[in-house]
Amino acid sequence: MIERCIIIFPEFSNIEVIDEIRERYDPLACHVRPHITLVFPFESNIDYIQLKSHLEEVLSSVNSFPLKLKSITPVNSFGNYLFLNIEKGKEEIVEIHKKLYTGILEQYFPQWLKTGEYNPHMTVGKIESEEKYKLAIEKTKEVTDLFKTIVNKISVEIIDDNEDSIIEMDIGLK
């Protein structure tokens, strides 16, 4: 079985701001670059060609789109998280998310999403201690940067045994 995730790796000119925040607050910072999750981690025996074919088919009508992220908010409904919010491009991401979870990926739709709503974002922190979480919230309120780019590809990563991200494929958008 291979553990995979389907994501967007945005490329911002000021990505170092996000990197610094993640190095401080996100335990996965050294394993995976800043990203927006489209299909949550799943284990399967789907082979590369089948997966690539599915992605090419469902993404064939999807155009590149502008993406803007700004302001970090705390979200603690399922852990002490810090999310960098999507200001522009959210509708496109939700649509891609829905398209990807069809066909061979339909069975991997997470149970917790069946009762909740997909809220695209970039995780920049997950803090275990309540005290450190409160400090992180205060510190990240100071971040006023705007992160802008054009999304022109979707990536599939393999998550290895060390939780490191290995890019398996990139699918370009029109």
3D architecture notes:
The protein has 174 residues and is an alpha+beta fold. Helix content is 28%, strand content 36%. The protein is built from five helices and eight strands; from the N terminus they run βαβαββααβαβββ. The strands form two sheets. The protein has a four-stranded antiparallel β-sheet, covered by helices on one side. Strands 5-4-3-6 form a four-stranded antiparallel β-sheet, sandwiched between helices. A hairpin with a 5-residue loop joins strand 3 (65-75) and strand 4 (81-88). The chain is globular and about 45 Å long.
> What would you give as the CATH superfamily?
Cyclic phosphodiesterase
Tally of DSSP helical segments: 5
Rg on CA atoms, Å: 16 Å
CATH class: Alpha Beta
Give me the secondary-structure category. alpha+beta
What is the approximate shape? Answer: globular
- In which range does the helix fraction lie? 25-40%
Q: What does the main sheet amount to?
A: 4 strands, antiparallel
CATH architecture name: Alpha-Beta Complex
Give the mean pLDDT.
96
Distance between the termini: 31 Å
CATH level 3 topology: Cyclic Phosphodiesterase, Chain: A
Biggest sheet: strand arrangement: 2-1-7-8
> What's the total number of strands?
8
In total, how many domains does the architecture comprise? 1
The fraction of residues assigned to DSSP E strands is 35-45%
Could you list some keywords that capture this structure?
single chain, 174 residues, alpha+beta, Cyclic Phosphodiesterase, Chain: A, four-stranded antiparallel β-sheet, globular
